[in-house]
Design a protein that fits this description.
2 domains, single chain, 5 helices, 64% helix, 129 residues
Length: 129
């Protein structure tokens, strides 16, 4: 199962209910009708549009974290931006360009961190000489 697989809600139509009563040889009892009317999936599952909106939010968040990571906390914000961008792309965001920018900025955060570690010999860095 991938991140883009969403369960689909299946509801019975009136013609399906009529067909079931003809096959079963009679009308459904109250208990059978109650069981048939309960949806098989969880009611708390997000709708496909809500999942798309969530993916858009992940794309924007990865972009913002990537930008912030260039200035501060690049050891934390860079990987977070990369993960959020990959999740947004996997969930088919409506903003793939923003997710790709977040991915690129997250990688740039790690590149800046590597350059600063090579220059200073430590993970911490300062702006003073």
């Amino acid at each position: 199962m991938t991140l883009t697989d969403f369960p689909r809600r299946v509801t019975a139509t009136d013609s399906d209910a009529d067909a079931g009563s003809r096959v079963g040889g009679g009308a459904a009892t109250g208990a059978e009708a109650a069981v048939a009317s309960v949806p098989a999936e969880d009611a708390g599952a997000p709708a496909p549009r809500a999942a798309g909106r969530e993916a858009d939010g992940l794309a924007v968040a990865s972009f913002v974290l990537g930008l912030l990571g260039l200035l501060v906390f690049n050891i934390l914000l860079g990987p977070a931006a990369i993960v959020m961008a990959l999740l947004a792309l996997a969930r088919r965001t409506g903003r793939p360009g923003r997710a790709r920018l977040g991915l690129a900025l997250g990688v740039a955060d790690l590149a800046v961190l590597a350059a600063l570690v090579a220059a200073n010999g430590t993970v911490s860095w300062n702006l003073g000489g």
